[in-house]
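Retro notes - structure team

What went well: the batch runner handled both jobs without manual restarts.
What didn't: labels got mixed up in the shared folder, which is why I'm recording both outputs here explicitly, each with its sequence directly above its tokens.

Job 1
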Amino acid sequence: MDNLLNQVYKIWGFKKVELIKAIRSGISKKIYLIETNEGKFILMGFGPTYSEESFLRYISVLEYLENKPVKLAPKILMDKEGNSYAKIDNKFICIMEYIDGRTLGEELEDEYRLGETIALLHSFDDFQIESDIRINDTIEEAYKKFYECPYKSKLYKIIDVLPNFYDYRQGFIHTDIAPHNAIINKNNKVILIDFDGAGKGSIYIDAGFPLITQFVRFHGPGDLRFNYENAKAFYSGYSSITKLETKDKQLIYAGAVFWQLAHMPSYQPGTENNMLDILKFAIANRDELISVL
């Protein structure tokens, strides 16, 4: 860690660099809060398991959002040579603005604000680098992983009727919409973080992400519930920016189903599959889920 800080000291031209704390210590990505003579910053290190292509897309995403009239993401700090990143000890390194504020929670007001912010993000439609969502590959894989499932025929029917999302509106998407990936800063603005999979893609898949993933949960063994109030708050915020017609709502629901299929593990006979139960619940309660949109 000392060598990394020394290299950052030299490359970015700081007069001092001190580690305050580690925020995330994953295998592919490490995140630190540092103190410098210019203030606090976020230091991000991307390990060898994080591909160069993914890292360069991450940097491009932040540079793209920095040039938009509405601030939705942290700013990258250029080094003293004007570069947005460096490679140190076989790791890609970048330094970003530290957002002083609080992480959003699962309260109604925060969900509403998050919905507004995501709708603004989706309004950006001139980013050219694709997100990491591979729609056709995901659908093909879904057929394979449910081949031995006793509900295979029903699941296949669900997969069969998924729309061709490429035929519908594309925009800038986040791919991991959740309160913990957003911060309200001191100016009461919502700033999004964690853009690992972000890029150009289907806004309906992205808008559908929280509908099942976040708002349908177990509250004990066999007790599945839909958090109607929080879901309604999020999508009310979204629709305050982007009006949703009937077709839009159907596509968002389809996007939610797509995500659930993507996240589900391969079926293994004799094992519990809570995510399959969640999908079955979402299908059985389709009208209630769509009613919040």
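Job 2
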Amino acid sequence: MFVDKRRYAYEVKSGRIVVVVVVVVVVVVVVVVVVVVVVVVVVVVEVVVVVVVVVVVVVVVVVEVVVVVVVVVVVVVVVVVVVVVVVVVVEVIVTSWALYSKHEIITLMSAPDN
């Protein structure tokens, strides 16, 4: 049996080239898939971070609004209590003065004339 060494060498060389091309294509595909997966993971992480930041900002704003409302309610209650106390004190003073004046008038009127 006769073997042509040149043809055999060409086929072996061609086979090696095909194997190298296949390996290069597989490596490129694997690298592309890894890059795509990394990009998708980074985008998902960024979206999660943005959602968490938005939720935190909303919670902070709600807490600030609640604090402002509580402060306003406390201030209104304090003002109302102060006004009520002032009104009661003034009423007591006026009533006491009126009763005292009436007593003085009654005392003067019932005094005997000399």
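One thing worth noting from job 2: The CA atoms of residues 85 and 91 lie 10 Å apart.
We'll revisit the folder naming next retro.
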